Amino acid sequence: MRVIAAMSGGVDSAVAAARAKDAGHDVTGVHLALSRNPRSYRSGARGCCSIEDSNDARRAADVIGIPFYVWDMSDEFHDEVVEDFVAEYTAGRTPNPCLRCNEKIKFAAVLDRALALGYDGVVTGHYARVVAGPDGTEMHRAVDHAKDQSYVLGVLTAEQIAHSLFPLGTDTKPEVRAEAERRGLFVAQKPDSHDICFVADGDTPGWLHDKLGTKPGVIVDESGEVLREHDGAFAYTIGQRRGLRLGRPAADGRPRFVLDIEPVSGTVTVGPHERLAITGIDAIRPRWCGPAPTAALRATVQLRAHGEEYGATVEPEADGMRITLDEPAYGIAPGQAAVVYDGTRVVGSATIAATRRATVG
Residue ranges of the tRNA-specific 2-thiouridylase MnmA-like C-terminal domain (predicted)? Predict the structure, then answer.
């Protein structure tokens, strides 16, 4: 097959491209330029959108012996990922920009362009597996569950999965690094990227404050007592404990957590940890990785990247899904993704719109 290898500049995408070439595919390496001003994004080993990463990807392609190009997708990234991130926080939700980037950039815009250019698919360094199933191509968890990235790929459609190659899904990260050393790829020991690539210093509240300005509000307890004022509700997320700066402890001396965010008034409500417990989720914008279920199904649900799985009953609806968890989950915020699994197979995902609290005895 003729394939585009999306090369971020890290070790995973470099080894994935090399393996695709070894498998006999006609591989072209492509690095995505996602920033209108690359120096405003993270630099060095902590980024995934920096000038250094572009240079690292080019050098890896030279070692592998494949053609290499840079595709400028900064406008698409800004409109679909960065602006969406700001809008979600403004609305009091907690988005996951990596899922959004996979959905709108890496496996929509890139794949669409690749297919239009006559390529058969896209290769990435994600840790997941694509296998043949009874109803077509399926996506499964990686063998190494500690590194598994199927959660952030849960937004892919069946057609996108059919045109995707994930060569690393059967390996651990140490095995991939060792292979990179053997291949002479100098990125073999390059640290993984972390946090949000377009937040230059890692200070998300500060970055949002620069974008949105000051929007005063108050932090209150569940009785409505005002505990202090704040400069913007966008600096908080459901389940947050640190950085509240309340000045005085709760009456019972226990820590307090963010329970609710009301974006119009800017009111942030805090309370005890047990009030974060939820057993019900209403989710919207479903993305099915295969045929959409027509009836309720027993499944497991993952609610955070690298988070635990919860047994659940999932009821598909026309514009979403209704999820009932077997056991309470804590600190789940609207805007996050709920990814549904049948064993290791990814069934689909949806965006959490609302949660239903567990009954506390």
Answer: 280-352
Question: What average pLDDT does the segment 45-60 reach?
Answer: 76
Domains recognised in the chain with CATH numbers: 2-189 (3.40.50.620), 204-271 (2.30.30.280), 276-357 (2.40.30.10)
Of the ranges 29-33, 49-53, 245-249, which one carries the lowest mean pLDDT score?
Answer: 49-53
Beta bridge partners of residue 129, listed in sequence order: 140
Vertex 195: Cα angle to 56 and 83 (nearest 5): 95
Strand intervals (E) in the chain: 2-6, 26-33, 68-72, 121-123, 128-133, 136-141, 164-165, 217-220, 226-230, 257-262, 267-271, 277-288, 297-302, 309-317, 320-330, 337-342, 345-357
pLDDT at 36 (0 to 100) = 65
Q: Does the annotation place 12 within a ligand binding site?
A: yes
Whether the Cβ atoms of residue 268 and residue 230 lie closer than 8 Å to each other: yes
Is 346 labeled as ligand-binding?
no
- Residue 224 has what DSSP assignment? -
Backbone phi, psi, residue 77, to 5°? -65, -45
| Collapsed DSSP state (helix, strand, coil) of residue 319 | coil
- Full-model pTM: 0.91
Helix axis angle, 11-22 to 51-64, nearest 10° = 20
Token look-up 């900064």 returns 74
8 marked as binding residue:
yes
Terminal Cα-to-Cα distance of the chain (whole angstroms): 59
Residue matched to tokens 């393996």 = 19
Highest mean pLDDT among 18-22, 130-134, 185-189: 18-22
Q: Would the annotation count 32 as a binding residue?
A: yes
266-278 average pLDDT score? 95
Residue pair 240/257 in contact by the 8 Å Cβ criterion: yes
Return the active site residues. Answer: 101, 197
And the tokens for 77? Answer: 């990234």
